Amino acid sequence: MRQMGVFLALFLLATTPALWAQERLIHVVSYQGVLSIGPAGSSRVVLNGKYNLTFHLYTDSLGVKSIWSATYNTSVESGVFSVLLGTGNKPLPTSQEMDSPLWIGVQVEDGQEMRPLAQLTAAPFALNVVDGAITKNKIARAAVTPDKVSFNYVEELSINGTPVPGQAKKINLQSGNGVDLTYNGDSSTVFFATSTGIWTPEPLMSSVNNYTLNITARYIRLMNISGASINLTGLDHTGIQNGRVILLANIGANPIVLKHRSTMSATENQFIVPGGTDVILAANGTATLQYDQWLQGWVLDATN
After folding, report:
1. Which domains can be identified in the chain, with CATH numbers?
2. Which of 179, 189, 197, 264 is deepest in the core (most CB within 10 A)?
């Protein structure tokens, strides 16, 4: 009996251009080899022509567990054949089934399958995924979990205990008439408060740094009872939204000086005065300030 063998086989993962045009990407394996007759050392290639080649994929080197097989009527020229495994009516197994070491067996016509089996290895480009190659259709449902998400993520939003339905929705909480909303990023807390509008704190007896505000107030009435001029170097911005506008009023007889970029207060709490000069609030004087998170401070809009 003549001995038939696969003298050389190359394995690589390939997807032909024609298959890209189909509605669903079909994966195939390009497998090439040389058919020879006779014992090693004195073999010769088979005659040119068509041969029925049967291929088996196994998950073990002994060929016990087969996960796929197909027969292809293949052209052989100078002993060389090339087959796209997985084409026709015999698609390859799912990626989950092929996610393990695999061995391939080859049978020519009605002869015995040739042994030993050849282990399949990946081509260099198949060891890496090109940018943009993974689409949403390739991600299994529920595979993306909160611990794998690197961008801002809120698991659930409820209103009075009732979850807000929908996926990938953008929710905007808006202040309303008589209600102020503030967000503290350090504690991830949204504060809801009734807006008092006007706030008159305890009188000031000395200069103050990082002055703590009533964050719901818009009109703040300060009184200096020290008997002399005092400095106010900054307002604590904790809980203050970007763009927040307040009106400071001196309702006492003694001046209050708003210091421009005084290092006595934290940078983000300081006053930013156009021109770089301090502002003196005399009796009944007012200053309109707007918080700017990009400039990191309270910008003076107007004085009176």
Report:
1. 4-127 (2.60.40), 193-303 (no CATH)
2. 264
